[in-house]
């Protein structure tokens, strides 16, 4: 089974011109999401779910959702900018208003790993990709999570604007003992924004691997490096948007990344509330397995 990524919220505290995701206009009821997750666990044996953006901290009942997933026996990786951990946070994308502070220790209690983005060592570099997130705010989130005992993963999207900044980013990580992993993602030019702004961020496989090598040479000794190339992530994700739509990126069957894979199309499978959604997913998985390597 592919890695399952649930978009818990329909809004975000930042605005990323290279975002690969689709934002739903509504938020599916938690009971429906939990019923779907229970079905995935029972039928496909999934053991982990990634709860990501739209930022999960914008969801009003994020703690009940995480608690319900945790009670199903799932490992939970939560990806968030983390802004609402620090206090009342303004919504910057796909919505208006603000979100009340979310207690970090409540989230840590029902999450196995918390992923925090850091895409530059200075605001000038960081905000090329992740607007409205300052380096100071991200370091403050890392510090707060460390104090409440979180297991932390730092996520960096490697693109043409920050590939020369990797050593400097590594230097910022040394003071945070709670960081266990540093994930480097090669920019993937998909989705409505990622595809539209692809020329600003595209980076070759060779450039990405050089950035990974720099990360390995400069990261603190207690931090493991995970390299996520664009080609290596093909056909690996099953995504659910906040409205409950289940989808995968529309990509060629080839193992390596092809130019045709850079598009803004998605293959819609159904909705978490559909009675036959698990059967549709089984058919999809069987079709992938039948494609020659």
TrEMBL record:
<dbReference type="Pfam" id="PF04055">
    <property type="entry name" value="Radical_SAM"/>
</dbReference>
<keyword id="KW-0479">Metal-binding</keyword>
<dbReference type="GO" id="GO:0046872">
    <property type="term" value="F:metal ion binding"/>
</dbReference>
<keyword id="KW-0949">S-adenosyl-L-methionine</keyword>
<dbReference type="InterPro" id="IPR050377">
    <property type="entry name" value="Radical_SAM_PqqE_MftC-like"/>
</dbReference>
<feature type="domain" description="Radical SAM core">
    <location>
        <begin position="1"/>
        <end position="222"/>
    </location>
</feature>
<dbReference type="GO" id="GO:0051536">
    <property type="term" value="F:iron-sulfur cluster binding"/>
</dbReference>
<protein>
    <recommendedName>
        <fullName>Radical SAM core domain-containing protein</fullName>
    </recommendedName>
</protein>
<keyword id="KW-0408">Iron</keyword>
<dbReference type="InterPro" id="IPR013785">
    <property type="entry name" value="Aldolase_TIM"/>
</dbReference>
<keyword id="KW-0411">Iron-sulfur</keyword>
<dbReference type="GO" id="GO:0003824">
    <property type="term" value="F:catalytic activity"/>
</dbReference>
<dbReference type="InterPro" id="IPR058240">
    <property type="entry name" value="rSAM_sf"/>
</dbReference>
<dbReference type="InterPro" id="IPR007197">
    <property type="entry name" value="rSAM"/>
</dbReference>
């Amino acid at each position: 089974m592919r890695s399952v990524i649930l978009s818990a919220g329909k809004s975000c505290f930042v605005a990323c011109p290279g975002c690969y995701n689709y934002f739903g206009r509504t938020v599916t009821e938690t009971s429906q999401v939990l019923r779907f997750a229970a079905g995935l666990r029972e039928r496909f044996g999934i053991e982990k779910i990634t709860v990501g953006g739209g930022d999960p901290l914008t969801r009003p009942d994020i703690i009940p959702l995480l608690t319900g997933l945790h009670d199903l026996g799932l490992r939970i990786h939560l990806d968030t900018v983390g802004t609402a951990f620090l206090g009342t946070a303004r919504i910057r994308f796909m919505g208006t208003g603000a979100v009340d502070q979310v207690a970090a220790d409540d989230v840590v209690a029902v999450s196995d790993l918390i992923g925090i983005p850091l895409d530059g060592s200075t605001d000038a570099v960081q905000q090329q990709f992740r607007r409205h997130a300052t380096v100071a705010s991200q370091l403050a989130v890392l510090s707060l999570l460390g104090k409440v005992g979180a297991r932390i993963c730092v996520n960096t999207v490697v693109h043409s604007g920050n590939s020369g900044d990797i050593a400097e980013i590594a230097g910022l990580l040394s003071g945070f003992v709670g960081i266990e992993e540093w994930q480097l993602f090669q920019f993937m030019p998909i989705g409505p924004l990622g595809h539209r702004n692809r020329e600003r961020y595209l980076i070759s496989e060779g450039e990405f691997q050089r950035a990974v090598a720099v990360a390995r040479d400069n990261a603190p000794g207690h931090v493991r490096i995970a390299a996520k190339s664009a080609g290596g992530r093909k056909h690996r994700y099953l995504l659910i948007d906040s409205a409950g739509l289940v989808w995968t990126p529309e990509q060629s069957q080839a193992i390596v990344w092809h130019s045709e894979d850079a598009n803004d199309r998605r293959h819609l499978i159904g909705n978490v509330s559909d009675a036959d959604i698990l059967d549709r997913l089984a058919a999809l998985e069987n079709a992938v397995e039948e494609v020659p390597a």
